[in-house]
C-alpha cells in the first residue's frame, strides 16, 4: 500500500512538471546567440525548486543547467544553431524533468563552396599593451573571380572590420592585418571571433565564422638581448624574456646549436634564460634561440620565430683556408685591375696621338714602273725617236733597259 502511494505521488509530480514557453534564439553579436524562455505560467511550485536543463545540439554539443531564464552562448553560426530546454523540478529530494522545447537558427544564406577555407589567425604582442592580429585564408572553390571577401573580428563586446588586406591574382582578399586591436594581452582562455563574408555579382557568398582561443593563437616574441660567449671549453649564453605581460617563469626556450666543424646539430629544451655547455674550443658554432609560454601559466601558444644566427668560436683549419682564398682573390683582383688600367692607358694614348695618315697620290708618276707599259712600242707619231732606233725590235729595247 505504501509503495502504491509513492508511485501515485510520483505520477502526480511528473504530470505537474511543465516545459518552458516562448523559447527563442536571437543573434545578439557576431557568433553570439541569446537563448531566452519563460516559465510555464501553469507550473505549480509547491515549495519546489525549479531549474532549467539546457542542451546545445549544434554546432558544438554542450549541456548545462541554470536557474535563470536566459543564456548567452558563443558559437560559429554559418551552418546554423540548434538548442533545447526543459524544466527541472526538485522536490523532496527528487528531480523530475519536463518535456523538451527546441529552437533552431537556420544556416547563413549563400551558395555552396563560396565560403573561405583554411582560415588561420595569429596574434602578436607588438609592444606592452598592444596586440596585432594577422589572418589568412583561401577562397572557396565555388567563389567567382570577382568575389570580394571582408573580415571582421570580435573580442568581448568590440567588433571591427579589417583595415588592410592582401590580394591574390584575381584581386580577391586573402589576408588581413590589424596592427592594433582591442585584444588584451595576458588574458587566459578568451575567445576571438573571426567572421568573413563576401560579395559577388555572379553568386551569393556564404559567410564563414571561426572561434579562436586567445592562448592558442598567440605567437610569442623572440627572446631579447641574447649574449653568447666562448670561454675556453665552456659556451655561455644569456638572454631576456620576450616582450610579454607574463613573467619570466612562464616561458620555455629551445636552444639550437650547430657545430660547423663536425656538422653535429642539437636542440636543447630549457626553462631558464641562461645556459652553459661544455664544447670543443677548436670548433666554430652557430646558435639560435626561440621561446614559448609554458603550461605553468597557461596553455602554450605558437613558438616564436628563431632569433638571428649568432656565431662563436674559430675553426683553425677554416681560418687558414679562408686566408689563402682571400689572398688569391686579392692577387687576382689586382692583376685584373692592372690589365684594365694598362688597356685604358693605351686606349687613351691612341686617342691623344693618332697615327699620321699616308696622303693619297693625285699626280701621275713621270717614271712608271709598270713592266707592261715599259714594254709598249712607241707610237707612229714619234717619228724622230723611231728613226734613231730603226732596226731594233721592242724586245731588244726592254732587255737593254732592265
From TrEMBL:
Pfam families: IL6Ra-bind. Keywords: Glycoprotein, Membrane, Receptor, Signal, Transmembrane, Transmembrane helix. One of its GO terms (molecular function) is cytokine receptor activity. It is found in: Membrane. It comes from the Eukaryota. GO terms for cellular component: external side of plasma membrane. Transmembrane segments: none annotated. Its main location: membrane. It is a single-pass type I membrane protein. This is Interleukin 5 receptor subunit alpha. It comes from Geospiza parvula (Small tree-finch). The gene is IL5RA.
Amino acid at each position: 500500500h505504501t509503495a502504491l502511494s509513492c508511485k501515485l505521488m510520483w505520477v502526480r509530480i511528473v504530470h505537474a512538471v511543465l516545459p518552458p514557453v516562448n523559447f527563442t534564439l536571437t543573434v545578439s553579436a557576431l557568433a553570439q546567440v541569446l537563448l531566452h524562455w519563460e516559465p510555464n505560467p501553469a507550473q505549480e511550485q509547491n515549495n519546489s525548486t525549479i531549474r532549467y536543463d539546457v542542451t546545445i545540439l549544434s554546432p558544438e554539443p554542450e549541456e548545462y543547467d541554470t536557474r535563470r531564464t536566459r543564456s548567452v552562448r558563443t558559437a560559429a553560426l554559418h551552418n546554423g544553431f540548434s538548442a533545447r530546454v526543459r524544466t527541472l523540478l526538485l522536490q523532496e529530494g527528487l528531480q523530475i524533468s519536463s518535456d523538451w522545447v527546441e529552437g533552431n537558427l537556420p544556416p547563413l544564406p549563400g551558395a555552396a563552396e563560396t565560403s573561405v577555407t583554411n582560415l588561420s589567425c595569429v596574434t602578436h604582442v607588438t609592444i606592452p599593451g598592444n596586440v596585432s592580429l594577422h589572418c589568412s585564408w583561401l577562397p572557396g572553390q565555388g567563389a567567382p573571380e570577382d568575389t570580394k571577401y571582408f573580415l571582421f573580428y570580435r573580442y568581448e563586446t568590440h567588433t571591427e572590420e579589417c583595415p588592410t588586406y592582401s590580394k591574390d591574382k584575381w584581386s580577391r582578399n586573402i589576408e588581413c592585418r590589424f596592427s592594433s586591436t582591442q585584444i588584451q594581452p595576458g588574458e587566459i582562455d578568451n575567445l576571438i571571433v573571426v567572421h568573413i563574408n563576401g560579395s559577388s555579382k555572379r553568386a551569393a557568398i556564404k559567410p564563414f565564422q571561426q572561434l579562436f582561443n586567445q592562448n592558442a593563437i598567440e605567437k610569442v616574441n623572440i627572446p631579447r638581448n641574447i649574449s653568447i660567449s666562448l670561454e675556453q671549453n665552456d659556451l655561455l649564453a644569456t638572454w631576456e624574456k620576450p616582450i610579454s605581460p607574463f613573467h619570466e617563469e612562464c616561458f620555455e626556450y629551445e636552444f639550437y646549436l650547430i657545430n660547423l666543424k663536425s656538422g653535429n646539430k642539437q636542440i636543447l629544451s630549457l626553462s631558464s634564460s641562461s645556459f652553459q655547455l661544455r664544447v670543443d674550443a677548436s670548433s666554430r658554432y652557430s646558435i639560435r634561440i626561440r621561446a614559448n609560454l609554458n603550461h605553468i601559466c597557461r596553455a602554450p601558444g605558437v613558438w616564436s620565430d628563431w632569433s638571428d644566427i649568432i656565431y662563436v668560436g674559430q675553426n683553425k683549419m677554416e681560418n687558414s683556408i679562408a686566408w689563402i682564398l682571400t689572398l688569391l682573390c686579392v692577387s687576382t683582383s689586382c692583376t685584373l685591375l692592372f690589365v684594365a688600367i694598362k688597356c685604358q692607358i693605351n686606349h687613351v694614348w691612341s686617342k691623344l696621338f693618332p697615327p699620321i695618315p699616308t696622303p693619297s697620290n693625285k699626280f701621275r708618276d713621270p717614271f712608271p714602273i709598270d713592266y707592261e707599259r715599259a714594254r709598249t712600242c712607241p707610237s707612229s707619231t714619234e717619228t724622230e725617236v723611231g728613226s734613231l732606233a730603226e732596226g731594233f725590235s721592242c724586245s731588244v729595247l726592254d732587255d737593254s733597259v732592265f
